[in-house]
Design a protein that fits this description.
By secondary structure, this protein is of the alpha/beta class. It has helices spanning 45-58, 69-75, 77-90, 124-147, 153-156, 162-171, 182-185, and strands spanning 6-12, 21-27, 61-67, 98-102, 112-116. Strands 3-2-1-4-5 form a five-stranded mixed beta sheet. It is globular.
Length: 198
């Protein structure tokens, strides 16, 4: 009997005021165990970067997907997150039998699903997905910082830090801000500045 193929799924970017939400599905290789897996938020940036490459080398399969700011605005952050998770699973070359999902909501998938609260702290496959998602999104925000340097996205990654809120107050929202988030829409409508090429 063939072993059950399990994928771990996690996301990064539900809380920020700007940028996409990123979801990842990972199928680990039991013959290549990875030490040091943990919730990405509990790891240093240097450790995350190291594990990012190690996971990609050792995993049987992985897929990275996202939902952009327009999709977040159109369907809300929860539904956009679930959509990104669906896209990640659809991107896998290996079809999983079971998806372990961090959190309390599961996307509609063709395989069985199991939700695990704080799963990124207890399930290695979810921890791996957490790390890939976090590093990927951080890199995206670093790239977007080049286009919008006045907001400091490379530092706070779009989260509502004091510096970010001060920049919002001074400059108003930009094209990658989430217009439906209260700290953003109270400071103006970023759609007026939206550049469809970004």
């Amino acid at each position: 009997m063939s072993p059950i193929i399990i994928t771990g799924i996690d996301e990064a970017g539900r809380g920020p005021l700007a940028g996409p939400v990123v979801a990842v599905a990972v199928i680990l290789n039991p013959k290549k165990p990875i030490t040091g897996l943990a919730d990405s938020k509990l790891l240093t940036e240097k450790k995350r970067e190291f594990l990012f490459e190690h996971i990609k080398e050792c995993a049987l399969d992985f897929a990275i997907a996202s939902a952009d700011v327009l999709e977040i605005e159109q369907m809300n952050i929860l539904q956009a997150t679930l959509l990104a998770m669906q896209r990640a699973v659809a991107g896998l070359k290996i079809i999983p039998d079971l998806a372990l999902i961090d959190g309390n909501r599961a996307p509609s998938l063709t395989c069985k699903t199991k939700i695990i609260v704080r799963g990124d702290q207890t399930e290695p496959a979810i921890s791996a997905a957490s790390i890939l998602a976090k590093v990927t999104r951080d890199r995206i925000m670093h790239e977007l910082d080049i286009y919008y340097p006045e907001y400091g996205f490379a530092r706070h990654k779009g989260y509502p830090t004091a510096n970010h809120l001060a920049a919002l107050e001074k400059h108003g929202p930009c094209a990658i801000h989430r217009a439906t988030y209260a700290p953003v829409y109270t400071r103006g409508d970023p759609r007026q500045k939206r550049d469809s090429s970004v």
